[in-house]
Specification:
This protein folds into 2 domains: about 110 residues, NAD(P)-binding Rossmann-like Domain (Rossmann fold, 3-Layer(aba) Sandwich); about 180 residues, NAD(P)-binding Rossmann-like Domain (Rossmann fold). It contains 12 helices and 12 strands. The chain is of the alpha/beta class and about 325 residues long. The two termini are about 20 Å apart. The strands form 2 sheets. A 7-stranded parallel beta sheet has the order 8-7-6-9-10-11-12, with helices on both faces. The protein has a 5-stranded parallel beta sheet with strand order 2-1-3-4-5.
C-alpha cells in the first residue's frame, strides 16, 4: 500500500473527505492503530500520515519502504526526528492551519471563566433564578475584561490572533518570546520579559511549543510571581504546566481560575488534579477540530505530499539522509 493514514479518526470521523490525499495514489485509512499493529500496517507503506502516533527509532527500523511522514499537526514532538534522518524519512508538518480556531477557543475559555458561564447556566437549569433577588447568583461573580492585561507566552500566529481579539475587548497585551519581534508591536501590544509579564498580567495565555525549556515551566515558582487572582489559559501543550502546582494555586486562590484544552496525559488519568479541580475548565483537546479547520488541514497535508512527490518538499521539519 503506497499511502497509509494510521490514526485518522480525530481528523475525519466521517464528516469530511479524504479525496485530496486519495488523488495522490492508493490509500488505506485506519481510524486508529494499536501499538502492536503499527509495524504490520506500515510494512509496505511508502507514505504515512499521522496525527498523534509516536514514531520511535525501533519503528523506523521495521518499515523499509517508508520514505515520508505527513503530519496532521503543527507540532512534531511525537516523531523521533533523529531516527527519521537516519532512515532517510522526510517529515512534514502543517503550520498555521488552525490559528483562528485555537485563538477562538482560547478566548472562549477566558470568557467562560470571566462570565462564570457554566455555573450560572447550571444554576438556572437546576431550578434557580426563580426570583429577581436570588442570593445564589451573587456568589457567582463576573469579571469585566476591559482594561485588564493579558500576557501571551509565545507570539506566533495563534497568539497574534488572540492579541487582536483581546485588543477588541479593550485589553492591554504583553507578549514574551525568546527573540523579541519589534515588527509585532503596535498600540496596545508590547514586549515584556517573562518576569514582567508574570507580575503585570491579569490573564496569562500559553502559545509556546513544548521543548526542554518549556516543559513544566508554569510551576510553583512561576505562579508565585503572578498577580494574586490571575487567570491562566493553556491551549498549547499540557506538559508546559506542572498540573499539581497549578491545581494548588487554584485551591489557594492565587489563581482565580484556569482554562485548559490540553493535559499532560491525554485522555487524562482519573486522578488528574486539573480535571478534578472545580476552578478549572477543561476541554478535550478540541481547539483545532472545527469542521472547516479539519478540511483545511487535509488539503494542506495533501499539498505537502504533492510537493514531496514532485521533488520540491515543503514544510520539512528534519534533515533526512538520501535513501
Amino acid at each position: 500500500m503506497e499511502q497509509v493514514i494510521i490514526d485518522g479518526f480525530l481528523i475525519n470521523p466521517g464528516d469530511i473527505s479524504w479525496r485530496p490525499i486519495e488523488d495522490l495514489g492508493p490509500l488505506m485509512v485506519y481510524s486508529s492503530t494499536p501499538r502492536e499493529l503499527l509495524a504490520q500496517r506500515l510494512a509496505d507503506a511508502r507514505m504515512v500520515y499521522t496525527n498523534r502516533q509516536v514514531f520511535k527509532r525501533e519503528l523506523f527500523a521495521t518499515c523499509p519502504r517508508l520514505e515520508y511522514i505527513g503530519l496532521f499537526a503543527t507540532g512534531h514532538n511525537a516523531i523521533d526526528l533523529a531516527a527519521a534522518d537516519e532512515f532517510g524519512v522526510t517529515v512534514c508538518n502543517v503550520p498555521s492551519y488552525s490559528s483562528y480556531a485555537v485563538a477562538q477557543n482560547t478566548i472562549a475559555l477566558l470568557l467562560a471563566i470571566a462570565g462564570n458561564t457554566a455555573r450560572l447556566s447550571g444554576h438556572v437549569k437546576s431550578g434557580g433564578w426563580n426570583h429577581a433577588e436570588d442570593p445564589v447568583i451573587q456568589t457567582m461573580p463576573l469579571l469585566e475584561l476591559y482594561g485588564k492585561t493579558i500576557g501571551l507566552i509565545g507570539f506566533g500566529e495563534i497568539a497574534r490572533v488572540v492579541a487582536d481579539i483581546a485588543l477588541a475587548l479593550g485589553m492591554r497585551v504583553l507578549y514574551y518570546r525568546r527573540n523579541p519581534d519589534p515588527s509585532a508591536e503596535k498600540p496596545g501590544v508590547s514586549y515584556a520579559s517573562l518576569a514582567q509579564l508574570a507580575a503585570q498580567s491579569d490573564v496569562i495565555s500559553l502559545h509556546c511549543p513544548l521543548t526542554h525549556q518549556t516543559r513544566g515551566m508554569i510551576d510553583a515558582g512561576f505562579l508565585a510571581q503572578m498577580k494574586d487572582g490571575a487567570i491562566l489559559i493553556n491551549t498549547a501543550r499540557g506538559p508546559i504546566l506542572n498540573e499539581a502546582d497549578v491545581s494548588a494555586a487554584l485551591d489557594s486562590g492565587k489563581l482565580y481560575g484556569a482554562g485548559v484544552d490540553v493535559l499532560s496525559k491525554e485522555p487524562p488519568a482519573p486522578d488528574n488534579p486539573l480535571v478534578a479541580n472545580p476552578r478549572c475548565i477543561v476541554t478535550p483537546h478540541i481547539s483545532w477540530t472545527p469542521k472547516e479547520t479539519r478540511i483545511r488541514l487535509v488539503w494542506r497535508v495533501a499539498e505537502n505530499a504533492r510537493a514531496y512527490l514532485a521533488g520540491r518538499p515543503i514544510n520539512v521539519v528534519n534533515n533526512p539522509k538520501v535513501k
